Amino acid sequence: MNCRGQLIVISGPSGAGKGTVCSALLEKNDFWISVSATTRSPRNAEINGIDYFFISKDEFKEKITSKDFLEYAEVYGNYYGTPKSEVLKVLDSGQDVILEIDIQGALNVKMAYPSGLFIFILPPSMEELRNRITNRGSETPESLMTRFTSAHKEISFVSKYDYAVVNDTVDNACNKIQSIVIAERCRVDRMNGDFLKEEISNE
Asked: 68 — phi, psi (to 5°)?
């Protein structure tokens, strides 16, 4: 049965560890992860074309006009967007695609692509979330408070997702997500009647 790839959308509050979880998933599975475009500056050792496509605001706005994004959003004063053509091409080939995007972007994808699999990454506790953001060492006291306040609001959107996974350890979170993806592949409505068609054609 040649099924279309599954679009797996992973998001959660800043500091929940979604980036680390996605990296671990890629090491263990044949997933393809979409590289987002952003207008923010690179952090630490981030590499253009691998972590993000770092572009100017003018270039980003041109891509919005030409409808090059599956979704886009403005977060903390910067734009983020998911290039559309490559994602759809990979899905058509039958490979699963991971989108690691913010909550605003994920909800935009859900409107355009409701058959996607939407997974929300939660921290073990709000105290642990604060520690993770603080330990980055890249936040001022003001930006730390902004991100922590935003995290409270973002967590309220968990009910918009199909599944919630607590990132207590990366291995545990990965195992849960892998189980969710396997279960989704076995859904009858994802088989599109292919099995029945094969049975009929063989008679």
From this structure: -85, -5
> What span, in angstroms and rounded, lies between the C-alpha atoms of 164 and 186?
19
Residue type, position 10, single letter: I
Range of the domain at 26: 7-202
Amino acid at 157: F
- What is the tally of structural domains in the chain? 1
For 30, phi then psi, to 5°, come to -90, 60
Rounded Cα distance between 67 and 83, Å, is 9
Chunked into runs of 10 residues, the chain (203 residues) has average pLDDT values of 82 88 92 93 87 94 94 87 91 93 89 92 85 69 75 90 96 96 85 55 53
Domain presence at residue 1: no
Identify whether 172 is part of a domain: yes
DSSP, collapsed to helix, strand or coil, labels residue 61 as helix
Residue 197 lies inside a defined structural domain of this protein: yes
For residue 123, tell me if it sits in a domain.
Answer: yes
